[in-house]
Amino acid sequence: MKFTNFADYLARLEATSSRLAITEILAELFKKASADEVDKICYLSLGQLAPLYEGVEFNLAEKLLFRAVGQAFKASEEEVKREYRKIGDLGEVAQRLKTLNSGKENRDLSVNQVYEMLLAIAEEGGSGSVERKVRKMAELLGFLDKLSVKYVVRIPLGRLRLGFSDLTILDALSWMLKGDKSQRNIIEEAFNVQADIGNIVRLVKVKGLDSLKDLRVRLGVPVMSGLCQRPVSYTHLRAPATVLVLV
Questions:
Q1: How far apart are CA 174 and CA 209, in angstroms?
Q2: Phi, psi (5° rounding) for residue 36?
Q3: How does residue 233 score in pLDDT terms, banded at 50, 70 and 90?
């Protein structure tokens, strides 16, 4: 899938407030995604590059993104900040600046290509890594169309504003398979055993629902804790109240 198509889905999700409609859009997205990218689409739609327990961090603070956006679209850092104070959303600021620099090269990058470039930015370390992160982010933004720019800037900030969590993705997987939420419990049980939503999505996409039955607790992968339940009500076993009569 081209990243521009993925960005179209993100825009639809952002414009939707209905939980059911969001579920249906995600189901459509997962159905159209290929097996080698569906897990990455899942992570990116949550503003991540990997499960949270893996600790993959962008380490790109807002200030650094001001610089990256400025470098990408030939604007000063102060100009970017000024636009940000007006709009309050750095993704929309980048989108506007991209529009003004529409002559800049756009490459028709795939989801996998953008993911790999973002991962390379996150994995930069050592001496001079800050400058390399800013430069690589600026290069990536220069390659993208204006809608994609908006969401790629938001991802490192963790502010995609799409209104759903990994639990909604469980519903969407069931919807992808059956057109309803009837399989949600089976999928959630697997997620509780291995709390890696991207892996769950990929397994269902590649091998179907039955593949989740073979999931086992894996070293290093968190298990979701469950709420305790009281299976039997003992209220009918209570002894009758004792009445004391004072004489």
A1: 9
A2: -90, 0
A3: very low
pTM (2 d.p.): 0.85
Q: Which amino acid is located at 209 in the chain?
A: L
CA dist., res. 59 & res. 115, Å (int): 16
What DSSP assignment string belongs to 161-203?
Answer: -----HHHHHHHHHHHHHSSSTTHHHHHHHHHHS--HHHHHHH
Q: How far apart are CA 169 and CA 30, in angstroms?
A: 10
Percent of the chain with pLDDT over 70: 87
Least confident of 31-40, 112-121, 145-154, 214-223: 214-223
DSSP secondary structure letter of residue 85: H
In angstroms, the CA 124 to CA 8 distance is 29
Cα end-to-end distance, the chain, whole Å: 87
10 closest CA partner among 210, 163, 233: 163
Mean pLDDT computed over 51-71 = 89
Per-residue confidence (pLDDT) for residue 101, from 0 to 100? 78
How far is Cα 121 from Cα 68, in angstroms, rounded to an integer? 12
Calpha distance 20→30 (Å, rounded): 15
Q: What secondary structure does DSSP assign to 11-56, as a single string?
A: HHHHT---HHHHHHHHHHHHHHS-TTTHHHHHHHHTT-SS-GGG--
Strand partners, 110: 2
Per residue in 75-98, pLDDT (tens digit) is 999 999 999 999 999 999 999 999
